[in-house]
């Protein structure tokens, strides 16, 4: 099991939910909705207060995924300012973004969800749509050490 999947499972067990908004609340992360133009969202700390900023113009499903992604940054990259790194350095943030995306995928689409849906007409694409997960990110999902490919 990957470290990220293990981390997600520990959080879900500890807090009893895989809802990113509820997890943020339980972990003391402030959620702020604001107009962000073309940006979907970002995570930062202001005077030691962790904050997730979400573009208020996104639909609810997209906001759900963005919250999960930014929560991934909070949990895994607490003291890293990816916005600063992108704008003011030549350091690549690709690894950090992949880790945050993987966190969001594992949080929103847990393995048990796939096992529970095997005898229904509900497909992986229905799940992806209901949680605002970009289809191209399904390749980050592993079930029983097998990759999912859209």
TrEMBL record:
- Which keywords does the record carry? Membrane, Transmembrane, Transmembrane helix
Instruction: Indicate the segments forming the IrrE N-terminal-like domain, all copies.
Output: 27-141
Give the InterPro entries listed for this entry. Answer: IrrE_HExxH, Rad_response_metalloprotease
**What positions belong to coiled-coil segments?**
none
Mark the transmembrane ranges.
23-43
Q: What is this protein called?
A: ImmA/IrrE family metallo-endopeptidase
Protein source organism:
Metasolibacillus meyeri
